[in-house]
Write the structure tokens for this entry.
Amino acid sequence: MLITKTFHDVPSKLDNGRPIRIFVISPVVPNYPQAKFPGVVCFSEIYQVTGPVERFAGQIASQGYVVACPSSYHEFEGPEAIPYDTEGTDRGNRYKIEKDIAAYDEDATLSVDLLVSLQNCNGRIAATGMCLGGHLAFRAAFDPRVLSSVCFFATDIHSATLGKGKKDNSLARVHRGDMTGKGELVMIFGKQDTHVPREGRDLIRKTLEDAEVPCSFLEVQAQHAFIRDESSKGRWDAALTRSLFTFMMEVFDRTIGRDLGPKVDKGEKVEHTLPEALIHVDLDEKGNDE
């Protein structure tokens, strides 16, 4: 589909009214001005909404989704992208631990609020993000309006070090059930990601499974930032990115791509089913005719 780009400056209550700029990329179907689409919040890395993030969001939008990309560091500077260089990396990492967790959560709420208010959005919302944005997409799953979240190499969840004081409560909230019974979650990590070691990935997976969160946990042969198609320091894997993008779109298509009505959990359990060959063998042993 064709896409258009715009932005909205939305006042932030926790930042004395200083607005957060939320970039919006929308699909367009010629001659259908009243078309409505599901919405996706796309959270960025520590560099705000860069070219790679915008292109990633644009690909989602072209599949038929209205995508909102919030500028995460509006408390500290404007909405411009932070350069992928040493100074920019240091600045982004500094902001990451100077911003309050409540402010991160407000950004997510404002982004969802914006999407559901748009005339071309049908109110069915998902989230995604990478690096810092992966963690923010993870936290967005606490919002019952977010029906699925796909998190790429989310940082600081295992160590609980996001935000001011480097002490977030993401896994603690999962442990106490704040994500249970809500949307579907997908966690994607590279096995060579030095930012999230095996022990950290195991902790995240166990916490989610213990809390009975519906989660797909993917570990692939890749490093950190493997979906970034610019300044990735040799880590970008285009083929793997394409494959996982397809996986993500299946999740979005299934969870928000159509109106399924309210969820009704009947408590039904999946029954263990034997293959046909084993059933026939069992019958033979009992002397029954096939």
